[in-house]
Amino acid sequence: MKRCATPSRRVARNERGTTLVECVAAIVLFAIAAAAIGDLLTEQIQMQRSNGTTSTAISVAAGELEDVRTLNYGDMANRSSTTVVDGVTYNLETSVVANSPQKNMKTVHTTVVWTEPTGAKSYTLHAIYTDVTH
């Protein structure tokens, strides 16, 4: 039986593999990309939390307007309260302006204020109620 000889091939100087400089350059590029992605993820997490607290604030304000709506027209008055949801404190201020925008109407402004890592935030809802007599 005859053996097949494998052809020997001489490796050219530019085909020997990667150099240490190329490896270090690749690692540096990877580190820069990883840092950029890390910053992006951190910002995304903060934005998600901010959206969550804003949604909660809107729900708190809407709930307050619903509570005011259930009151008798004559009992609608200014009030304030504090609510804590998921460790965030929401300060609620409700102001009632009589005869606004017209006689026998009340304008209700409900403002929710809370603090996030980026600073204080607020959200206000407005509604107009009228005295309906049968």
User: Could you name the ranges where pLDDT drops below 50 across 5 or more consecutive residues?
Assistant: none
Mean pLDDT across the residues is: 89
Q: H/E order of the elements?
A: HEEEE
Summed up, the helix count is 1
Beta-strand percent range? 25-35%
Q: Radius of gyration, Cα only, in angstroms?
A: 33 Å
How is the main sheet built?
Answer: 4 strands, antiparallel
Number of domains: 1
CATH architecture: 2-Layer Sandwich
State the total count of DSSP E strands. 4
Query: So what's the overall shape?
Result: rod-shaped
Structural class: alpha+beta
What percentage of residues falls in helices of 4 or more residues?
25-40%
End-to-end separation in angstroms reads 114 Å
Q: Which strand order spans the largest sheet, edge to edge or round the barrel?
A: 1-2-3-4
- The CATH class turns out to be Alpha Beta
The name CATH uses for the topology is Pantoate--beta-alanine Ligase, Chain: A,domain 2
